[in-house]
């Protein structure tokens, strides 16, 4: 156990205040007596950073000395959120710092609130990467992250007076970032465009020259483990021009031309693309992907070479995890290095590559599968395109050998999709270039094997394809965001949180306490205080007064048609219309409900943005309606972020995960909400397997039915009026202008009236029935609290520690390293 009984807390507090004041005076060059909260945050952060740096250096040193096999997590997104609170908790210094800053006249909550989120991600995929870094360090595993240091993270979401989403930039680095260390000495030259010429000397070698050269500079972010010295690294690359600007153009008086090249270099890491689930084929995005994979590989290779082993042993020292297909160019890039620079034969190079990489798929939605136009690839990365053609040729020859004469199969499996233009299928390249491939939940991994990669399973054998069900870190999503629940758990189990936070299955010991009335009372009281904390937050930020005696119902995730926020809002309207028709006596039996939505829509996603507008305008009407406002409130909370999630999730009574069956690969907010509450879920069967079906409210059609239903929609359409009168009525009320904007919502409503790809009309009735069951269940508060406790108790499986250990053991083959 981390906590040292001999630790002298008083001395610790004194040394904290000393280091704080020292940073105020020397690092910030300010006077302690007129310091504001922002200054106090910066001083506290720098002081905590000093602690982290000691551990971080020690960890790096030991990895270098012992040279164990290491894993690298390549992700274009890391949705880290805030760092200070997490670092304090992981170091076990939260109480001491709270005490220390209090002595200096500050409150730790106010200080923590000054920090801006590091929001270098879109949604689930980016947050998963952040949870995995936390777990890797906490499990003492030698894992580093590699990503991009975007100048602007995910856009800030504003809501216009009409209810539309507006996007503003997120200049998160403006206040300086105490958590990163610029490594100006670690940089690599990255080439784009130019010419590739095969040597034609009987080897597969080629030269690549000319074009544009850009510098990749490293910024390091410390990743502290929980109650351990292990402090890993997240290395983020920034792009810079190789030379300040072009002196020839400058001297010739062409000033614009002179700075143009420098601007184009800096543009590469200027902004995170705010899309997920839709490809768009933009050259700058491809540049980001290559810039990042090439810099990361160069760095990994340099580190490997320091060990002094032959290059053929590379996979014994290095495992590289590809987070979705975004880093797939690492495969041809490593081939290029091995062949053109290391002079390896093709088959040796391919052997090394296919023993190094691992690929995780995060979606089966066709519009999210990356494909890059061949002409663009040939232009930007001519040598890589040659290599991809060569990989494809050899690959298709081996397919032909196994399935002679099966031309359809060759066409289906080719890395190059025919068409105008031809396109490179990145998921196929990632699959054949990797040692193993996995999906992110049992159901999803089965779908990967039976749909998008079916031919590859037949060709390569099933053992290459696996599953690692996603997880979330209990440090942030329980201890940090719900501290009262965390201490109740520790005191009830009589187990230090240092133990159960790192072995979440220990929560099962809570099960007997479902029968303990005092415990249940305390459990419910904590929920109530969390609701009040959220209500206070909404009151101070948005000015709304929320009824905290209501059930809090949340749907918090990116806006997407497949996630069916539309089903939820139409359900809210249905509830509103039902309430309007009730007698006073009937209304007395209704339990009040507050529905919260939060989430961003991709800026060009018209239908998703229209859904936001509908939610906002429905909220305006129903929150003002004296007939219903005590029983139903609705809020769209703008600018959803990791730190907003930390307030919302602990306050929720029920969370909605209602995507069309088979479309949500895994979901992770379901796990976060389940740590404290239950869910209505269209897809996630594993949670129900753990917590028991009686603690989950299922509804709607299951995955196998989806294809048939879509077929019916296309070839035997039934009018909505006939199929689902309740839904038809809701749609007609919206069309008629009950919430204003009579014609504005037609394109959204028509997605349901025509085609209904996400099956709202098939699932609406059973959805409403499930919500009624939730209402019914909530009336029995004793049983409800028991369900809540049981759900939390059975969440052990969904700790990201379990997930990361599976990757370490069954994929990367790496071992924990004790940092002395
Ligand atoms: C895809 C694309 C496609 C090209 C345009 C840019 C872009 C950016 C991100 C993505 C990733 C989409 C996949 C994704 O985010 N999947 C989510 O991954 C979560 C973690 O595994 C999982 O819980 C969610 O169910 C899944 O939707």
TrEMBL record:
<dbReference type="GO" id="GO:0030170">
    <property type="term" value="F:pyridoxal phosphate binding"/>
</dbReference>
<comment type="similarity">
    <text>Belongs to the glycogen phosphorylase family.</text>
</comment>
<keyword id="KW-0328">Glycosyltransferase</keyword>
<keyword id="KW-0021">Allosteric enzyme</keyword>
<keyword id="KW-0119">Carbohydrate metabolism</keyword>
<comment type="function">
    <text>Allosteric enzyme that catalyzes the rate-limiting step in glycogen catabolism, the phosphorolytic cleavage of glycogen to produce glucose-1-phosphate, and plays a central role in maintaining cellular and organismal glucose homeostasis.</text>
</comment>
<dbReference type="GO" id="GO:0005980">
    <property type="term" value="P:glycogen catabolic process"/>
</dbReference>
<dbReference type="Pfam" id="PF00343">
    <property type="entry name" value="Phosphorylase"/>
</dbReference>
<keyword id="KW-0663">Pyridoxal phosphate</keyword>
<dbReference type="InterPro" id="IPR011833">
    <property type="entry name" value="Glycg_phsphrylas"/>
</dbReference>
<feature type="modified residue" description="N6-(pyridoxal phosphate)lysine">
    <location>
        <position position="672"/>
    </location>
</feature>
<keyword id="KW-0963">Cytoplasm</keyword>
<dbReference type="GO" id="GO:0008184">
    <property type="term" value="F:glycogen phosphorylase activity"/>
</dbReference>
<protein>
    <recommendedName>
        <fullName>Alpha-1,4 glucan phosphorylase</fullName>
        <ecNumber>2.4.1.1</ecNumber>
    </recommendedName>
</protein>
<dbReference type="GO" id="GO:0005737">
    <property type="term" value="C:cytoplasm"/>
</dbReference>
<dbReference type="InterPro" id="IPR000811">
    <property type="entry name" value="Glyco_trans_35"/>
</dbReference>
<keyword id="KW-0808">Transferase</keyword>
């Amino acid at each position: 156990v981390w906590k040292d009984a001999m630790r002298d807390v008083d001395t610790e507090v004194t040394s904290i205040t000393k280091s704080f004041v020292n940073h105020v005076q020397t690092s910030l060059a300010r006077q302690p007596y007129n310091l504001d909260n922002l200054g106090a945050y910066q001083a506290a952060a720098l002081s905590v950073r000093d602690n982290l740096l000691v551990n971080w250096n020690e960890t790096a040193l030991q990895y270098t000395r012992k040279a164990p096999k290491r894993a690298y997590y390549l992700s274009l997104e890391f949705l880290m959120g805030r760092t200070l609170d997490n670092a304090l908790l992981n170091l076990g210094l939260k109480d001491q710092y709270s005490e220390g800053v209090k002595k200096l006249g500050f409150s730790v909550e106010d200080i923590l609130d000054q920090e801006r989120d590091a929001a270098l991600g879109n949604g689930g995929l980016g947050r998963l990467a952040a949870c995995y870094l936390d777990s890797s360090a906490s499990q003492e595993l030698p894992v580093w992250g590699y990503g991009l240091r975007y100048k602007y993270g995910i856009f800030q979401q504003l809501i216009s007076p009409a209810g539309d989403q507006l996007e503003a930039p997120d200049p998160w680095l403006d206040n300086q970032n105490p958590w990163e260390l610029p490594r100006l000495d670690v940089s690599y030259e990255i080439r784009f465009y130019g010419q590739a010429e095969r040597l034609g000397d009987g080897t597969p070698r080629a030269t690549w020259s000319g074009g544009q050269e850009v510098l990749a500079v490293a910024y390091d972010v410390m990743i502290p483990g929980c109650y351990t010295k292990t402090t890993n690294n997240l290395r983020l690359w920034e792009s810079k021009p190789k030379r300040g600007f072009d002196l020839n153009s400058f001297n010739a008086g062409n000033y614009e031309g002179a700075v143009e090249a420098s601007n184009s270099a800096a543009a590469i890491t200027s902004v995170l693309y705010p899309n997920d689930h839709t490809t768009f084929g933009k050259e700058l995005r491809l540049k980001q992907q290559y810039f990042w994979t090439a810099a990361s590989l160069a760095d990994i290779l340099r580190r490997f070479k320091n060990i002094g082993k032959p290059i053929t042993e590379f996979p014994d020292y290095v495992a590289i995890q590809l987070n979705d297909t975004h880093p797939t160019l690492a495969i041809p890039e490593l081939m290029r290095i091995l062949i053109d620079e290391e002079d390896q034969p093709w088959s040796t190079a391919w052997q090394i590559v296919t023993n190094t990489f691992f690929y995780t798929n995060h979606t089966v939605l066709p519009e999210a599968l990356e494909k890059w136009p061949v002409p663009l690839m040939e232009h930007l990365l001519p040598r890589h395109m040659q290599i991809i053609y060569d990989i494809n040729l050899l690959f298709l020859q081996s397919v032909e050998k196994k399935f002679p004469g099966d031309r359809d199969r060759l066409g289906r499996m080719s890395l190059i999709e025919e068409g105008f233009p031809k396109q490179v299928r990145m998921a196929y390249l990632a699959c054949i270039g990797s040692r193993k491939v996995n999906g992110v939940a049992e159901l999803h991994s089965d779908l990967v094997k039976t749909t998008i990669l079916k031919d590859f399973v037949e060709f390569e054998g099933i053992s290459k394809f696996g599953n690692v069900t996603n997880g979330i870190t209990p440090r942030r999503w329980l201890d940090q965001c719900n501290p009262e629940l965390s201490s109740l758990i520790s005191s009830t189990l009589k187990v230090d949180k240092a133990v159960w936070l790192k072995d979440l299955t220990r929560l099962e010991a809570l099960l007997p306490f479902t029968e303990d009335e005092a415990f249940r009372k305390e459990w419910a009281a904590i929920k109530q205080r969390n609701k009040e904390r959220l209500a206070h937050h909404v009151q101070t930020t948005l000015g709304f007064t929320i009824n905290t005696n209501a059930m809090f119902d949340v749907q918090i995730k990116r806006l997407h048609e497949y996630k069916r926020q539309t089903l939820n809002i139409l359900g809210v309207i249905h509830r509103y219309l039902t309430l309007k028709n009730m007698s006073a006596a009937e209304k007395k039996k209704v339990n009040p409900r507050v529905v919260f939505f939060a989430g961003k829509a991709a800026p060009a996603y018209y239908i998703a943005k229209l859904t936001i507008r509908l939610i906002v305008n429905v909220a305006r009407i129903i929150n003002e309606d004296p007939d219903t406002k005590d029983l139903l409130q609705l809020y769209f909370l703008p600018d959803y972020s990791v730190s907003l999630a930390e307030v919302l999730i602990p306050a929720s009574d029920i969370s909605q995960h209602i995507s069309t069956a088979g479309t949500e690969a895994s979901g992770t907010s379901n796990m976060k909400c389940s740590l404290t509450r239950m869910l209505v879920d269209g897809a996630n069967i594993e949670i129900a397997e753990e917590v028991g079906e009686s603690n989950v409210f299922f509804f709607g059609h299951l995955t196998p039915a989806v294809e048939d239903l879509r077929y019916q929609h296309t070839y035997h359409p039934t009018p909505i009026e006939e199929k689902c009168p309740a839904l038809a009525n809701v749609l007609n009320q919206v069309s008629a202008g009950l919430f204003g904007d009579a014609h504005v919502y037609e394109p959204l409503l028509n997605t349901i009236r025509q085609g209904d790809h996400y099956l709202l009309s098939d699932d609406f009735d059973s959805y409403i029935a499930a919500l009624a069951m939730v209402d019914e269940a909530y009336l029995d508060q004793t049983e409800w609290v028991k369900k809540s406790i049981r759900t939390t108790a059975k969440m052990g499986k969904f700790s990201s520690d379990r997930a990361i250990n599976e990757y370490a053991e069954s994929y990367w083959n790496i071992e924990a390293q004790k940092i002395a």
